[in-house]
Write a structure and sequence with these properties.
By secondary structure, the protein is of the alpha/beta class. It is 41% helix and 20% strand. The chain has a single domain, classed as Rossmann fold (3-Layer(aba) Sandwich).
Length: 225
């Protein structure tokens, strides 16, 4: 069960206020893929702000219990989802594990770190969803360990259509605390953006690769992260 619009707006406002999310349509950021983006999101910034950190933790816990019930275990996706997952597991009194982006290059070569014990199911915690590919790779790793993945909860999503398609294909339910449309509305209402800047941000999400061409050479539409 998703959060109410008021709660989603509150999360968006908090992330904007502490600069965990920054907006710069005139001088865009460059993602690792080379794609130019008018938005930069680093939800780990919230870990440095106790009141925001507490609110996000509480909302993550609320969605986990209301949407999925109490699972046997909580898993965090490395690296951004590790701290949030550990907080949720602690508050709910559950075991915790985390999933590496790739298998460890030495030792036992594990991707899933932690004592899975007798856990049969798990809810995954993530900080940010772009295309969903890296997050769903973690889901695959947990399933390979024999765990039922009840679903995933993330702090924020860009809301790309490709992400919705990827989660549907993987049969994985996704819930988030806030999302791109809510963020843009909140940013405009609180004067973080002009009307023209808000329109630019809306156009970016419709076709990030095409929008990026204004600032750089063409990039592949598949490289959104």
């Amino acid at each position: 069960m998703s959060l109410s619009l008021d709660e989603r707006r509150k999360v968006a406002e908090s992330l904007l206020r502490i600069k965990a999310i920054q907006l710069a349509p005139e001088i865009p950021f460059t993602w690792a893929s080379g794609l130019r983006s008018p938005i930069y999101c680093d939800n780990r910034m919230a870990l440095s702000h106790p009141s925001v950190r507490t609110h996000i933790r509480q909302q993550l816990c609320s969605i986990v219990e209301r949407t999925y019930g109490k699972p046997d275990m909580i898993a965090g996706v490395a690296t951004g989802g590790i701290a949030w997952g550990a907080y949720v597991a602690h508050e709910l009194g559950l075991p915790f594990c985390y999933v590496r982006s790739e298998a460890k290059g030495h030792g036992k070569g594990k991707r899933v770190e932690g004592d899975l014990g007798k856990a049969r199911n798990v809810v995954v915690i993530e900080d940010l969803i772009s295309t969903g590919k890296s997050s769903l790779s973690a889901v695959d790793a947990l399933r390979e360990e024999g765990l039922e993945v009840k679903g995933m909860v993330a702090v924020f999503t860009y809301g790309f259509d490709i992400a919705a398609q990827n989660f549907a294909k993987a049969s994985c339910v996704l819930e988030t605390l806030s999302d791109y449309p809510t963020l843009i509305t909140e940013a405009a209402q609180r004067d973080y953006l002009t009307e023209e800047q808000a329109e630019a941000l809306i156009k970016w999400r419709e076709d990030p690769a095409a929008w990026s061409k204004q600032f750089t050479e063409a990039v592949s539409p598949d490289t959104l992260s």
